[in-house]
Amino acid sequence: MKNIFSKIAAIAATSAAFSVVAAANNPANAIELNFNWQGDAGYSAIGSFSYDETTAPTIISESGSGATNFLESLNVSFLDPSNNPLGTYNTVTGGVSQSDFFAFNFDTSTQTLFGPLNVGGGTGVIGEYFFSGTVGDSLRLRQDVDQQGTSITLDQNSGSIQVSKVPEPASMLGLLAFAALGVGSSLKKKQASC
After folding, report:
1. Pairing status of strand 151-157 against strand 138-144
2. HEC profile for 51-88?
């Protein structure tokens, strides 16, 4: 039994070392961030976006459909007050926006969204959900009711939206490897005292 824990610890340490070396030799250029929004009536939005941190300017401003300047991806899901999914949209995929109404402003140095924000649906399909407004002023979850541009507000808040960085896989692997080493070491000490 003692040998199996030593082998597991050795494999975990080797995996962690290879992960660190691989990350150092092939640095990830894309940074991924999550965002979440909570409306006053209990509706919510969660999503993520990514961009190449080696080429992005301090301020990323994107709008409209077609090729984006710096944003590589952006997706958002909307949930009702009971956390039932209402809709999920890939507003930007492969550096291309699908929405004429798309608006996105992000400060890479402070990692905060600011200014006009419009993400979600935006292709004119009846029933699509979208998120619009101004960060710091008022953000609304809306739903299209016809193809003439009429929509209804389902929820809103004072413009508050949170952004957080997604941990890199190599960092997570390293933490898991160190945890495995700690468990292996503890078990080894425990077995030695028996």
Report:
1. antiparallel
2. EECCCCCCEEEEECCEECCCEEEEEEEEECCCCCEEEE
Report how far residue 69's alpha carbon sits from residue 73's, in angstroms, rounded to the nearest whole number.
11
Are 52 and 69 in contact by the 8 Å Cβ rule? The answer is no
Q: Tell me: the pLDDT tens digits for 140-192?
A: 999 998 877 789 999 999 999 999 999 866 444 444 444 454 545 555 555 55
Q: Cα dist. 173→23, 168, 180 in Å?
A: 11, 9, 10
Encode pLDDT of 4-59 as tens digits.
444 444 444 444 443 343 343 334 589 999 999 999 999 999 999 999 999 999 99
Task: Give the amino acid at 130.
Answer: F
For the question of whether the overall pTM of this predicted structure is more than 0.90, the answer is no
Tokens of 31: 């940074």
